[in-house]
Specification:
Elements (H helix, E strand, L loop, with lengths): L6 E5 L2 H4 L12 H6 L17 H15 L3 E5 L2 H4 L9 H16 L3 E7 L5 H5 L6 H18 L5 E6 L1 H11 L9 H22 L5 E7 L3 E3 L4 H24 L4 H7 L12 H5 L5 E5 L4 E5 L14 E3 L15 H14 L5 E5 L8 E2 L2 E2 L2 H19 L4 E7 L18 E4 L4 E4 L1 H12 L3
Parallel strand pairs: 1-2, 1-13, 2-3, 3-4, 4-5, 5-7, 6-8, 7-10, 10-13
Antiparallel strand pairs: 8-9, 11-12, 14-15
Helix pairs in contact: 3-5, 7-9, 8-9, 13-14, 14-15
Bound molecules: 5-hydroxymethyl-3,4-dihydroxypiperidine.
The site of 5-hydroxymethyl-3,4-dihydroxypiperidine has 8 residues, from loops.
Length: 445
Amino acid sequence: MFDPGFLWGAATSSYQIEGAVAEDGRGPSIWDTFAATPGAIQGGDTGAVAADHYHRFPGDVALMAGLGLRAYRFSLAWPRIQPTGSGAVNQRGLDFYRRLTDTLLDQGIQPWPTLYHWDLPQPLEDRGGWPARDTAERFAEYAALVHEALGDRVTHWTTLNEPWCSAFLGYATGRHAPGRRDPAAAVRAAHHLLLGHGLAAEAIRGDDSHVGITLNLTHVAPVGTEPADLDAARRIDGMQNRLFLDPLLRGAYPDDVLADLREVTGFGHVHDGDLKRIGASLDHLGVNYYAPMLVAGSSTPTQSAYVGSPLVRVADGGRPRTAMGWEIDERGLLELLLRLKDDYPAVPLYITENGAAFDDVVEHDGVHDAHRVAYLDGHLRSCAQAIGHGVPLKGYFVWSLLDNFEWSFGYGPRFGIVHVDYATQHRTPKDSARWYAEVIRRGGL
Ligand code: IFM
């Protein structure tokens, strides 16, 4: 079960909630540019206003306190702090995060910042973006600046959120900013993101600082026992999980994944010493889990984010789905946590995102999101089971505190436990928020 020190939290990210994209000296990010590209985002939505958290953060922190949250995971917008991605600090941007952090601390809520949740300063993309090695160096410089400013208030740092998405959705499929479709560039980006993590961790780590990274991991299973299905599962597990876990926790890329990727690119971009820096010990690992993946071999080549593995298709597990079309299966989370314990050196784990979008209906007496409550309840049960099996799981952050900008899907999908009326910016805690507050109050289910 959950021990009394278990960290109960909720998560958001800068571009998804802040708005105020041109205020107080913030520079443009790749998401501003991408969102302005016709056809890139459903409904032509952008993060220009989002949930207006930049102006409303005191009220949002009061809401968090009302729910009894012990921690709040948010991200810092790099272009607020370094508008061009390098050089001098924009003090007004940094001050926003200082005020946010202080307001959280005043309410007894632990600030849990992520340094990068996808909003790369546009000038760095113009100089090559993550496929260029220099971006990793610039990221470490930015991390050091933020640490210098907030290191007396923050103990737990996360370098990157979901580098798989940054690399493969951003540079291979083009579904995310910067919208490039260049598989070889995506593979280089993945390495430079990991390198950026390693360099930033070196810059931050010290007395009171714990440094982690958040990965979007999943439980991958084959539909059957045919060799092609087993190979599909190996490949997808390799690209989604092991390509990141192995260098971080074992100091080496998995040989089979390198072999799969040789179809796409060579590895001249991996320099001597990089893996040593990437594999320097993690103080914690953040796990984002939403759905399992059932996969099969395929005879028809398809282009997907899984570059180097065209003969794979995602199969239907026949389970109920969320509004994103993602299958609901909390057992996948249990399998994933047990696998992390069995296959990798022990490291404190935190679920840094878990949650679901559903088609919420605002009624006269609130938002009765029973599906979301059931989803969260099931996944927390898996967490409790995992702890019972000895998994070092130390905390859980619901995705998300607020309804927000869901990237290329715009404002359609609602993941929040708090409803946001985007016309008025009025916040309404959903039934799931009340349910979660009660879980926190009781210290468990
Ligand atoms: O909204 C995203 C978040 O930014 C990263 N993880 C997945 C969430 C739901 O798609």
